[in-house]
Automatic annotation (TrEMBL):
One of its GO terms (biological process) is negative regulation of DNA-templated transcription. PROSITE patterns: HTH_TETR_1 (PS01081), HTH_TETR_2 (PS50977). Coiled coil: none annotated. Transmembrane segments: none annotated. It comes from the Bacteria. Signal peptide: none annotated. It comes from Aneurinibacillus aneurinilyticus ATCC 12856. Residues 7-67 form the HTH tetR-type domain. InterPro entries: DNA-bd_HTH_TetR-type_CS, Homeodomain-like_sf, HTH-type_Tx_Regulator, HTH_TetR, Tet_transcr_reg_TetR-rel_C_sf. This is Transcriptional regulator, TetR family.
Amino acid sequence: MKTSTTSTTYEVILKTAYRLFAEHGFDKASMAIIAKEIGISKPALYYHFKSKEAIIDVLFDEICKSVTFANFFSIKQYSKDNFEEKLIADGLSIIQSQTEDEHYSRIMHQYQALGYRNPKYMQKLIESLDGFTTGFHELLRHGVSIGAIKDGDTLAHAQMLTMIIDGVDNFMTYGFQYRYDKIWAKTVKAIVRGE
């Protein structure tokens, strides 16, 4: 989670909580620990957030906004000449962002675990993945319409791309050193080339 160089106290709280939740989990990272880490009093922390649950909620909304399909893929930028190359590059940018943020995978697993207990988190996670499936489906249909890819089962291919993006995140969390870039590129090439 990135903040500007002139971060407000509110942003510093979110950034610090993001790291502490990833490192220690939601249960162990208390409001007192967050306040101490930032160097503010607990009342000052409560001025910005009425509870730890409020921080968890706001963080989740911010994370979900930052990982939408549209933040990584712009259908308007895809042409017949660049389709395969661009789809590979845009997918790799997601993988790269997951690699660069050492806390992302761990905090997302916290939210997944929370989703099993609280349906509102599970629903938001499902909506996020559905957004990728819908986005990939539109992108692949665009590819068919401009002659960049062969007509095929674009929905199944969109679901496959979504599963790979989600799977990469999960496997990174467990520490697998797979060749994610090659897996993504091979999948895209197989879809685009109709292999």
